[in-house]
Design a protein that fits this description.
The complex is a heterodimer of chains A (about 230) and B (about 180).
Chain A lengths: L8 E13 L7 E7 L5 E5 L2 E3 L13 E13 L7 E9 L5 E10 L5 E2 L2 H5 L7 H7 L3 E9 L4 H10 L21 E17 L6 E2 L27
Antiparallel strand pairs in A: 1-5, 1-10, 2-4, 2-6, 3-5, 6-7, 8-10, 9-10
Chain B lengths: L1 E13 L6 E8 L4 E5 L3 E3 L2 E2 L7 E13 L7 E9 L5 E10 L5 E12 L3 H10 L22 E16 L9
Antiparallel strand pairs in B: 1-6, 1-10, 2-4, 2-7, 3-6, 7-8, 9-10
The chains are: A mainly beta (about 230), B mainly beta (about 180).
Amino acid sequence: MTANSPSVFLLMINGQIEGANFPEYDDLYCKYCFVYGHDWAPTSGLEEGISQITSKGRDSPHRLVWNFPLEITFKSTNPLGWPQIVVSVYGPDTFGNDVVRGYGATHIPITPGQYVPLIFSSTPLSTPPLIKDLLSRHTRTIPMFVPESTSRLQKFTSWLLGRRPEFTDPKVVAQGEGREVTRVSSQGFVTLSFNIVTKDMKRLGYDTTATETTHTHTHPVAAGFGPGNQTLSM
Amino acid sequence: MAELHIIGQIVGASGFPQNSLFCKWGIHTGGAWRLLSGLKEGQTQVDLPSTGDMAYWSHPIDIHYTTKGLQGWPKLHLQVWHQDSFGRCELYGYGYCHVPSSPGHHHVSCVTWRPLGSWQEQIAQTFVGGGPQLRSPDLIYSGADRYRLHTVAMGTVELELGIIMRHFDRYGVES
């Protein structure tokens, strides 16, 4: 790769799994891994990890803190298959066996920039995620869900044996296909924060940020662009 | 040709009468647009939230389009369904939103509606469930044949969409 005509772009991700909000559970740890398309390859950093076990503090009964670092760099030629991070949370049940307490996934932010610590530290973890996401672009609060038993008999036996259904591969939560057969129950949130740096995306012609004033999503699509049947001359 | 990437998630929905919901979704474009790769329709998981009103789907979207023109900018159309404990499904809402036309990360809230039947149908619906559905789902994203349709407001679907555009500036398109 020469500096003048790049063929790949780089996506550098620094961040952390800050913590979680699970009203019903305690003593939890989490695992993370990345799911990405064929054109993508990690160039440095760790693709997966397991956190420590954390408990709720006495002063913040809803807040579980992991403060677990994420550092990885990807290279790619095509934004398709943009990396997603898959997080799964585990904790002991009443018999002391580790069972899953939630799976969740989100895309890595596509725009370079960093999260604003000020906004986060003044808001408790239990605030509605969507409002907070509007405030700070690179904090993601992702919903966590567990698969449900498909039949009442299975539900009964899983209750009797203290084993609940799990995904054999947590990466299915990052896939759009075959989701219609799963029934899940959402029961908590995990908060992630990211600092994103991209290299050579602009040079390859990719725009990931609005150039001038930011348009809101309610802005009508460029309907008045030229005569009705005009196509771009390409 | 200009390229458009849509990368994001259908996060979930709230404000519906029941919270055990799933969603069928699809993307509709004009003739100048060509799908290079990615899924342009699908169905989410069913979420039965243990707490709260909002059902979460976290359904990923990752689509790559090329286009020769701006007409027929992609529209995302949604159908929200309720699944009860016996596995029976009932339509809860239709909605659509335009895919944002500027690059970057967007939070999109899509409002939904449901056809309202005659008063006899409404009474029947309160007791046995069900209700009228659209015969042609094109009506969800077209404004041509909406007149005479009587509808009622339903909940809101939340989406997070990242837009990456390529070579639009080469043709003088300002987004």
